[in-house]
Specification:
This protein is about 25% helix and about 30% strand. The radius of gyration is 18 Å and the shape is elongated. By secondary structure, the chain is of the alpha+beta class. The chain has a 3-stranded mixed beta sheet with strand order 2-1-6, with helices on one face. It has a 3-stranded antiparallel beta sheet with strand order 4-3-5, with no helix packed on it. The structure holds zinc ion. Zinc ion binds next to loops.
C-alpha cells in the first residue's frame, strides 16, 4: 500500500512538470530511491502502469537509481556508510547515529517529448 501513494505522487509530479513544459508525452522518469526506503521497484512499476493509463505518461519508462545509506555519528559528527550491517561509528565506535540519507524517494528528472 505504501507504494501506491508513492506512485501517485510520482505520477502527479511527472504530469505537472510535463504540463509546465507543454509536453505531449512523458517518455522517461528518473527516480532516486533510498536503500532504506523499503520501496520495491516492481511494485512502483506495477502501480504506475495502472495509474498512468489515459495520461500522457502512459508510456513512460521508469528508471530507479538506488541511493546509498549515509549515517552521521552524534558523538563526533563523522559521516559514514554502514558496512556489513555495522552501524557503529568507524571513528569513535559510538553507536549513537542518525540517518542523514537513505530513506528518501524522489523524482530526479523527467524526459518529455
Ligand atoms: Zn563517532
Amino acid at each position: 500500500m505504501h507504494e501506491l501513494s508513492v506512485t501517485q505522487s510520482i505520477l502527479s509530479i511527472a504530469l505537472e512538470k510535463a504540463n509546465e513544459a507543454h509536453a505531449s508525452k512523458v517518455s522517461k522518469i528518473n527516480l532516486v530511491v533510498g536503500e532504506l526506503s523499503g520501496i520495491v521497484d516492481e511494485c512502483v512499476q506495477f502501480y504506475f502502469d495502472f495509474l498512468s493509463k489515459d495520461t500522457i505518461a502512459a508510456e513512460a519508462a521508469l528508471f530507479f537509481q538506488e541511493s546509498p545509506t549515509q549515517l552521521r555519528c552524534r558523538n563526533c559528527t563523522t559521516i559514514f556508510a554502514p558496512r556489513n550491517g555495522n552501524w557503529a561509528c568507524p571513528n569513535c565506535h559510538e553507536p549513537k547515529i542518525e540517518i542523514i540519507s537513505g530513506r528518501q524517494l524522489y523524482v530526479e528528472s523527467i524526459e518529455v517529448e
